[in-house]
Amino acid sequence: MGVMLKVNDLSVNYGHVKALKHANIEVESGKIVSIIGANGAGKSTMLRAISGLVKPATGNVEFMGSALPAKPSKIVAKGVVHVPEGRKTFSGLTIRDNLLVGGYLYKGKQLEENLEKQYKLFPILEERKNQFAGTLSGGEQQMLAVSRGLMSNPKIILLDEPSMGLAPIIVNQIYDLIRQIRDSGITVLLVEQNARKALGICDYAYVLENGIISLQGTGDELLRSDSVRKAYLGG
Asked: Which ranges of the chain does DSSP label H, i.e. alpha helix?
């Protein structure tokens, strides 16, 4: 399948704080790749740098063999979509309008087809399409945030902490959806503090500690790692 996304020697500074230090990762096409680490390790910064929301101090990001453009809207048009931490749906808009915002690259028939595809994947969003997003539960808002990202027909979706603040049963539903997304042909780069869940679903994973990639391997390899177990899996 080959490498779809490649992060080369990426460093990001916020003032004097070095949030990411010479990080290198690869994401193979059609796979789920996870980045795990403690709060403040640089996981969200990695996604923000890939999607053009922060400018790196060193390094670059390659997508399908070419350097990604700097502008976020052009990165989306290339097929790279970022679903940020905290859901960030437009609470004063209906579900349908939130989805239409996500599909801004398309018009007419193609936009309607994209909408129907999302309603098939997330039937609850169709049932409630005229409800304001702010009236949804946390789990439903997370589904809406993911669905809005999928409206642009991405080749890869960057998911930042999709399980944060959700009840365990809802987390399981979100992870079932992540598998469905991968099975539909969309590559997934997943950032999570919930290490057990992330390692259980992924094909490959990286551990970020204080902005540095400290460990990498398959999900199974990292689940068996003593250092990962002690640091992230409660011993």
From this structure: 43-50, 72-78, 95-102, 108-121, 123-127, 138-150, 168-183, 195-201, 219-224, 226-232
Residue 27's pLDDT band (cuts 50, 70, 90): very high
DSSP state of 99: H
Domain-wise residue ranges, the chain = 3-89+136-232
Instruction: Report how far apart the first and last C-alpha atoms of the chain are (Å, whole number).
Output: 36
Amino acid 183: pLDDT:
94
Dist. CA 114–CA 133, nearest whole Å: 19
Query: According to CATH, what is the number of the domain 3-89+136-232?
Result: 3.40.50.300
Q: How far is CA 22 from CA 51, 52, 186, in A?
A: 17, 17, 27
Supply angle C-alpha 71, 77, 78, rounded to 5. Answer: 90
- pLDDT-above-90 percentage for the chain: 76
CA atoms of 69 and 67, how far apart (whole Å): 6
